[in-house]
């Protein structure tokens, strides 16, 4: 019973952190959003390059600056697994908003986060976002899929 209570407490702490991080991302607050990441974080994002290491506040802010107003989102099929001082979160993400050129964005993608507990705080140490691609030889990203 004690282990279950501890696990539930850790799950609640992680969910609270992820919600605060999501709010910072939606509000386009790069400094706050990155405060929820480990210093040596690794990111495999939808945008190039293939991998990014560490925090890149200038890069994140530059991306935020391509959006008009807040960035919206929705999560589906989220799953959280906690084991000691590491955890994994996965889910389907719906990114919505308007770009500064007026383009409307409504993109579903997959995301996995690897989390670590450092100095009593849960932080994102690894993040991976992806979209499926057509298996017909075209290599075309499938951006119109929905859950």
Describe the structure.
With 147 residues, this protein is an alpha+beta fold. 26% of the residues lie in helices and 45% in strands. The protein is built from three helices and six strands; from the N terminus they run H-H-E-E-H-E-E-E-E. Strands 2-1-6-5-4-3 form a six-stranded mixed sheet. Strand 5 (104-118) and strand 6 (121-130) form a beta hairpin. It starts with a helix and ends in a 17-residue tail after the last strand.
Q: Determine the strand fraction and express it as a percent band.
A: 35-45%
Count the strands?
Answer: 6
Mean pLDDT: 96
Main structural class: alpha+beta
Report the biggest beta sheet as strand number plus sense, adding barrel if it closes.
6 strands, mixed
Which term fits the overall shape?
Answer: globular
**H and E string:** HHEEHEEEE
Q: Can you list the strand order of the major beta sheet?
A: 2-1-6-5-4-3
**Over the alpha carbons, how many angstroms does the gyration radius reach?**
16 Å
Q: Helical proportion?
A: 25-40%
Distance separating the two termini: 36 Å
Show unreliable segments.
none
Given the structure, what is the number of helices? 3
């Amino acid at each position: 019973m004690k282990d279950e209570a501890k696990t539930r407490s850790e799950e609640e702490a992680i969910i609270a952190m992820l919600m605060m991080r999501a709010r910072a991302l939606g509000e386009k607050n790069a400094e706050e959003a990155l405060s929820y990441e480990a210093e040596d974080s690794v990111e495999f994002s939808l945008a190039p390059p293939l991998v990014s290491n560490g925090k890149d506040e200038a890069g994140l802010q530059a991306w935020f600056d391509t959006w008009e107003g807040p960035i919206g989102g929705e999560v589906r099929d989220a799953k959280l697994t906690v084991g000691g001082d590491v955890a994994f979160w996965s889910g389907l993400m719906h990114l919505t908003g308007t770009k500064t050129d007026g383009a409307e964005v409504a993109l579903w993608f997959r995301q996995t986060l690897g989390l670590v507990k450092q100095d009593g705080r849960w932080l994102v140490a690894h993040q991976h976002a992806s979209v499926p691609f057509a298996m017909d030889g075209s290599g075309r990203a499938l951006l119109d899929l929905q859950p």
